[in-house]
């Protein structure tokens, strides 16, 4: 039977899949042995994709209110609503909230419409919640959002430090690769995390730090390396700049990280002894009110030791979603323009010229949390949500629901008919789902791969890029939104990276300019920037030097007797986001049937809470009920709950009602990992 090569719908590992269509929406899934990201491996979620592609629950037709509509009527209504809203209230009264589930072509068209033709920066993606702190840290250090490593570096590393990453559960195929490096040449694995996760249990060294103490730990490590004369002064002289007083701003303070000197010494010994060192960081580092500083503390260590741009070395952020990276590249974040450009007058002019855009935005737009705040305040009057479920996934999700309920026009394009977010939609537009989409994605190591259609569209569903282009044309922008297929959109994106690149940016797809449909369909996985984009040690700054950034540990939070616990949130191995897809798989649901509140035995005893009983978690933002799992993997005073469950899947256990909307001031990423909470028996 015919094998169709595509990529997994879930995480940023970006595994290649060999799909064999076996009948009407039937498919056999195997790992693609030829895909460099996974070499044939898949995790449980990817392996069970075939169980999640039925038509059950699909949005099959456009809907206006509760009534079935047709595309023409619905698209005209959306286009007219945007035009009228902009005419009455200005371009910043309109916002798009998009998703790392979109393909790069979808993202490209949405960004172009908003930033060049509506004239606002108000397009942000749910990737803001996932890795925007890493983006900000890379831009501060390198002058461009460039992940400096690839998975092949994991194969060559002698020491792999995992920071805020339950890799074994959340990026299982990367974890298998790390285990292979350990088996092949004895790579050492260190896990730095406030929780003793499934990954931590398999580490050579587990550093159970206090929440948000990563900056103190990495500053201490760099200071310790200076004392041990392990700093690479030649590299720093030639390829980096340091702010005045940088070294004196560091101190060796393991107690600030909540660990003792012996533990710190063991970590420092490993770092000193293993030059081929990867520091792989994920949401535990990024989802913090000091997430950007954490990223820069990690990058500082690598720059200080000259451990970047060489095999088996580098500060490596891995993304949660399948195409968070593609969104970063084309401008899906409100804080970047397109193709890694910022909002300087020169960059805006270049984008305007390339797009022949009549209404260029004047600057960045509102980031996710601020966007929903502006909706709540009535400043944004039109919201288009694409392929995401903010009614569940945003922090302070109760407030987000209130905001959408107040918004005069909410459009939702999605493949699922009934989500917590579609409940607020005035217009629902049926979008293609995985197995129907056709386009490109970029994984965590900057590898662009094709996602290919296995089946015809469900019902009247259409590609997101096509829906957006239809709306743009109905707004009078026919000349700029006339692509025949996703291959033509991709070609325009490649041309923008090439023609608008001033020669210094690593993101340059000029090799692919002019690719025809056949070439696009046959596209093999390929990195942008190469497997090691800083192998030349030329960074994207005016002097081509990297920047060490002085970062200071945050103040310790004042004790609050009303909310004495630190609230941490995260993922389960076999569920994905708000379960709108994985919830369809009976096999995946067997792993964890309900969300569990994890609490240290001493805290449980003090509260009179027993294992398997129910307990209520309360924060200043909401209350939710969970079954209890007493676990000594938690630090005392800290609790953990998973993020996935929704109104649709459980009458309680809703987690994102609980975290507050507190952001990193640089990246705008919410601090999901260290909220404050109270726990009481139910
Ligand atoms: Fe899919 Fe990620 Fe699992 Fe790979 S590791 S199969 S991309 S969920």
TrEMBL record:
Q: Where is the 4Fe-4S Mo/W bis-MGD-type domain?
A: 1-57
Which GO biological process categories is it annotated with?
Answer: cellular respiration; nitrate assimilation
Enzyme Commission identifier(s): 1.7.99.4
Which top EC class applies here? oxidoreductase
Cofactors per UniProt? Mo-bis(molybdopterin guanine dinucleotide); [4Fe-4S] cluster
Gene Ontology CC: membrane; oxidoreductase complex
UniProt keyword list:
4Fe-4S, Iron, Iron-sulfur, Metal-binding, Molybdenum, Nitrate assimilation, Oxidoreductase
Q: Name one GO molecular function term.
A: oxidoreductase activity
Question: Could you say which protein family the record assigns here?
Answer: Belongs to the prokaryotic molybdopterin-containing oxidoreductase family. NasA/NapA/NarB subfamily.
**Name of the protein:** Assimilatory nitrate reductase catalytic subunit
Shown segment, full-protein numbering: 1 to 682 of 863
């Amino acid at each position: 039977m015919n094998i169709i090569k595509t990529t997994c719908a879930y995480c940023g590992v970006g595994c290649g899949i060999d799909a064999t269509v076996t009948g009407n929406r039937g498919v056999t899934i195997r790992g693609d042995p030829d895909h460099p990201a996974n070499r044939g491996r898949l995790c449980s979620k990817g392996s069970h994709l075939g169980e999640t592609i039925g038509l059950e629950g699909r949005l099959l037709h456009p809907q206006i209110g509760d009534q079935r509509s047709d595309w023409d009527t619905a698209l005209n209504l959306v286009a007219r609503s945007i035009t009228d809203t902009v005419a009455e209230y200005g371009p910043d009264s309109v916002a798009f909230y998009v998703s790392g589930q979109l393909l790069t072509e979808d993202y490209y068209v949405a960004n172009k419409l908003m930033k060049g033709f509506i004239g606002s920066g108000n397009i942000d993606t749910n990737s803001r919640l996932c890795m925007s702190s890493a983006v900000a840290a890379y831009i501060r250090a390198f002058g461009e959002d460039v992940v400096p490593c690839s998975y092949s570096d994991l194969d060559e590393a002698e020491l792999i430090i995992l920071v805020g990453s339950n890799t074994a559960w959340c990026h299982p195929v990367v974890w298998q690769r790390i285990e292979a490096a350990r088996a092949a040449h004895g790579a050492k694995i260190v896990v730095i995390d406030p929780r003793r996760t499934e990954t931590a249990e398999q580490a050579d060294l587990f550093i159970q730090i206090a929440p948000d103490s990563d900056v103190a730990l990495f500053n201490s490590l760099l200071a310790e390396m200076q004392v041990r004369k392990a700093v690479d002064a030649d590299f720093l002289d030639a390829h980096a700049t340091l702010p005045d007083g940088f070294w004196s701003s560091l101190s060796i303070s393991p107690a600030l990280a909540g660990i003792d000197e012996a533990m710190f010494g063991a970590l420092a010994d490993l770092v000193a002894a293993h030059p081929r060192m990867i520091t792989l960081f994920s949401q535990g580092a990024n989802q913090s009110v000091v997430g950007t500083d954490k990223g820069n503390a990690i990058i500082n260590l690598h720059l200080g030791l000259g451990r970047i741009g060489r095999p088996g070395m580098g500060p490596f952020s891995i993304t949660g979603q399948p195409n968070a990276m593609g969104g970063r590249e084309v401008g899906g974040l409100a804080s970047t323009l397109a193709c890694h450009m910022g909002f300087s007058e020169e960059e805006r002019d270049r984008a305007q010229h390339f797009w022949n855009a009549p209404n260029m935005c004047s600057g960045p737009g509102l980031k996710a949390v601020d966007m929903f705040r502006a909706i709540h305040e009535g400043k944004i009057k039109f919201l288009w949500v694409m392929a995401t479920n903010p009614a569940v996934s945003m922090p302070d999700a109760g407030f987000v629901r209130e905001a959408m309920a107040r918004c005069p026009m909410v459009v939702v394009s999605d493949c699922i008919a009934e989500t917590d977010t579609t409940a607020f939609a005035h217009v629902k537009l049926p979008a293609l789902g995985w197995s129907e989409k056709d386009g490109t994605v970029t994984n965590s190591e900057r590898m662009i791969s094709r996602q290919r259609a296995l089946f015809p569209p469900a019902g009247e569903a259409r590609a997101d890029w096509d829906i957006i282009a239809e709306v743009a044309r109905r707004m009078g922008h026919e000349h700029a939104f006339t692509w025949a297929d996703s291959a033509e959109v991709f070609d325009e994106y490649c041309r923008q990276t090439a023609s608008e690149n001033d020669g210094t940016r690593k993101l340059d797809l000029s090799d692919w300019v002019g690719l025809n449909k056949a070439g696009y369909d046959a596209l093999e996985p390929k990195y942008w920037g190469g497997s090691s984009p800083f192998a030349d040690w030329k960074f994207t700054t005016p002097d081509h030097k990297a920047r060490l950034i002085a970062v200071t540990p945050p103040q310790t939070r004042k004790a609050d007797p009303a909310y004495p616990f630190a609230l941490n949130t995260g993922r389960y191995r076999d569920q994905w986001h708000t379960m709108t897809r994985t919830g369809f798989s009976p096999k995946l649901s067997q792993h964890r049937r309900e969300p569990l509140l994890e609490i240290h035995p001493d805290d449980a005893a003090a509260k009179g809470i027993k294992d398997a009983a129910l307990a209520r978690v309360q924060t200043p933002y909401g209350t939710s009920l969970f079954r209890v799992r007493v676990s000594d993997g938690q630090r005392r005073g800290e609790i953990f709950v998973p993020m996935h469950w929704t109104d649709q899947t459980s009458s309680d256990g809703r987690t994102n009602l609980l975290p507050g909307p507190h952001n990193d001031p640089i990246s705008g990423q919410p601090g999901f990992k260290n909220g404050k909470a109270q726990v009481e028996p139910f």
